[in-house]
Amino acid sequence: MHQSDQDIRNRLLIARLPAMPQILIKLIAHLQADDAGMPELAALIAKDAGMASKILGVANSSAYHRQGKVVSLEQSLVSLGTDMIKTLVISESVFQTFNSFPHSGSTDLRAFWKSSLSAAVMARALAKAMAYPHVEEAYLAGLLHNVGRLALLATAPKEYAFNFTARDDAALCAVEQRTLQITHAEAGAWLIERWHLDSFLADSVLYHHEPLARLEASHPLIRIVRLAHLLCCHADDAESITQAASLCALDDEVLQDLAGSVARQVAQAAQHLGIDLAGADDIATPPAYAPPSVDPVQQRLSDEVRNMVLVSEVGQTFSRQQGESSLLEAITRSARILFDFDTAVILLQNPTGHALVGVAAGEHQQRLAGFSIPLAKGGLLAASALECQLAFLKRDMPALGIVEEQLFRILATDSLVCVPLVAGQRSLGVLIGGVAAWQIPACQKREGFLRAYANQAATALETAINARGLARRQLDHVAEEYRAASRRVVHEVNNPLSIIKNYLSVLDHKLEKQEPVTGEMSILNEEIDRVGQLIGSLADLQPVAASGVTDCARVVDDVLRLFRATDFLPPKIEVVTRMQDAPCEVEADADMLKQILLNLLKNAVEALPDGGRIEVANRGHVNRDRRLYLELCVSDNGAGLAPEVLANLFSPVRSSKEGAHHGLGLSIVHDLVTRLHGVIGCRSSKSGTSFEILLPISLPASAAAALPAPGNTALSS
Known about the structure:
The chain has four domains: 1-17 and 107-291, Hypothetical protein af1432 (Orthogonal Bundle), CATH 1.10.3210.10; 19-100, no CATH class; 296-470, 2-Layer Sandwich (Beta-Lactamase), CATH 3.30.450; 544-712, 2-Layer Sandwich (Heat Shock Protein 90), CATH 3.30.565. It is built from 29 helices and 13 strands. The longest helix is centred in the C-terminal third of the chain and has 66 residues, at 447-512.
């Protein structure tokens, strides 16, 4: 495994390891005071309800053979004696504190606590034998001498789970150093140093595996703990025990006397403390194990293959997300899992490409909603996005700008990993991960994986952004269609409204003379209905043409009657109709045909400002592509159309006429003829302009089958 992955020293710095309980700190200070008495000790213990309860429970146990029940704390302290009180307080404090370690509930700690309790009792006995003045400090040192093993288990459970139960010897320290770059002795000393005790307690823990030859001039507490460890964990190593005993100026006879009493005291202490040590000696203690070293080339190949699989999987995950917001959530969530980010956020380039802005995704979306980094102003984050390069930022870097400092505060981290999101050659933004400083080397070794992940994320984001753009364009297209339809309706509504207005004046004139107005009222009703139909057509941007059979001659008569009865047709313009006696029925909606003719006649009138002649003619049947049409022609003898006007005749153009909706008439005519499945054309010269409309007619099946082939098209009139 990578050394950066195993940097337990740095991981210990952020691990939630317990602090020393306050009662223990005060007890140690009390024990080191020369004038400390029982009243002060009682007052100290009374402040901790749990500890006072433990003292009362032990004082009333059968071990002390009391006749009556002890009800007060001071009586309990007197009955137990100072030594037992100190033992109980120290032991209970340590057990309560360290049994709350992470993973302590899932690991069998019986053997660990029996070894620790044995070393504590032995260290206190050795201290008394050596006349060391702080015997309770020796007891605490023995109790904590292997607490580093608990710290390593809490900090690196996967790496240390097996070796936590391994035999406690020099081989274990070597394996710890090789696999974790720290021994349990160093970890324990580091933990105790956090308590800032003014004693040699941390040193006694640090050196309890030290070669004996180096301890000759060491502090007595260091030699006491070293000998206690040998006696409790390596009783079969007689040579080392003899050498350690000589460092403590103790002979074998004293050690033998001590060994006999330690086992009884451990059992008694465990009973008083409520610690179950049954079966502790049956727990196996195998030799320490270190996994075989992996060939670096093979390890790198394995990592690359694993990364490829992971990148492929996250790419599939991204493709399954519905919507841009869901995708952004998936990207930040996956980044935290894959790269062990404490938090992850995304900044995307705004539509103009001038700034990075926070997006509504992740746990900091509210604070990042208004966050913006101008790309032109420089800075490390902006450079990462513009240059498409990874950046690793630390809070103490001198080149940090205000925006980077803001991000450090928002994400509550001391280091940032900035990964540009690049799709093709386009930078979309930056993925930012918050990590601890000790994780930066590991992230730097995974740059390839980070880039591959970011490319997958950027590709998915680009697809989502393009989809959003397509949806916006589709909405814009619909809106434009609606606006165009609105313009057409407004243009067309003007015709019947003008007719209604003119007919109202005619109606008023006839009513004054008491003449019949039935015909005018009928026309007014028709035009009002047509206004309603035109406005109703806004509900459908592409209305379906109404079907039916219409008599062209009747529609022409109706339109001309409207023009003649109102001011639409000036006196100086002559209108001539040439409708054949043959049937004039076509497959068309009468109202739509009426709308077509109204527009064409209005254009013809406007083309003759000085007067002239307009002709509406039925030119008979026309065969076009094996389909029969009726040709209807509206022509004038005006000045004709300019070539550039004729070229764009049926497109919506800006007209020189007054009004907001002029220039739409002929485009509307073209649309209406197309919806009737007809064809319209225009001829124009200096002698006038002619609009020719082909409208389909219906024939019996037998007549349709007799039509000539497309190459034999005939015109009849």
